[in-house]
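Q: Here's a chain of 236 amino acids. Please give me its 3D structure as C-alpha cells.
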Amino acid sequence: MVSSWRVQQAAQDIRAGAVIAYPTEAVWGLGCDPWDEEAVYRLLAIKSRPVEKGLILIADNIRQFDFLFEDFPQLWLDRMASTWPGPNTWLVPHQNLLPEWITGIHETVALRVTDHPTVRELCALVGPLISTSANPAGRPAARSRLRVEQYFRGQIDGVLGGSLGAEPLNKLLPEALSQLPQDIQPEVFHQSGKNHDAVTAERYRNVGVARRLRHSYRTWPKPMAGPIWWSAAQAH
C-alpha cells in the first residue's frame, strides 16, 4: 500500500501541472489534471497520441461525474453505477461540457470509476483525472515501474509507486445489459488483451456507432445518445 503522504505529494504535483505515472487495475497509467490544457497536451506529446482520439476520465466515485449527468435518464445512471467501481469504462454523451483536449473529435467521453486503492485516493484529493495507458503509441502498455521508466525517463514529472490490481488483461465481464428494453439497447464493447489505444482506434474507425445509438435512443424524451459500455480491465 502506498503511503498517504506520497499520494498527497502526487496530488500537489498534479495541481501544479505535473504528468505522472501510477499503477491501475491491470497496467500502468499516465495522468494529469484534465482542466490543465498545457498538461494534457504535454501528456499527449509524451505518448505521441493525437488529440483527436480523446481521453478517459477516471474518478474515485460516480458523484465526481455529476456535472455530466444532470440530464441523464435514471436508467442510464443505475446501469453505470451497478458496474462501478471497477475496470469498466462507459462512453457517455459529453454535451459540450468538456474541452476538446479531453473529448477529441467525439460526441462521447470515456468515464471510469476506478477500484484501485491508490488511484481512488489520488482522485479523492484532486477530482477526476485524465488517464491513459503508460506506453508510447504503438508500444505495449507498461506492466511494471521499470517499463514506465524505460519508456518515459526524463519526460514525466513523477512516478507514484505501488502494485497493479488483480484484473487480468484478457478479462471479459459477462454483461449484455439484458435488463434494458430491446429498443434502447446500448452497444457493448469488450476489450480482450488489447491496450486502450487499440480499442479506441477500432471503436472510432466505425463512425456508424454514434448514428446507430442516436437511432436506438429516439424513444427517450431527450435527443441524446445513451452510454456505451465496454468491459476492459486495461482501458486507460
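Q: Can you summarize the key feature?
A: DSSP finds eight helices and nine strands in the chain.
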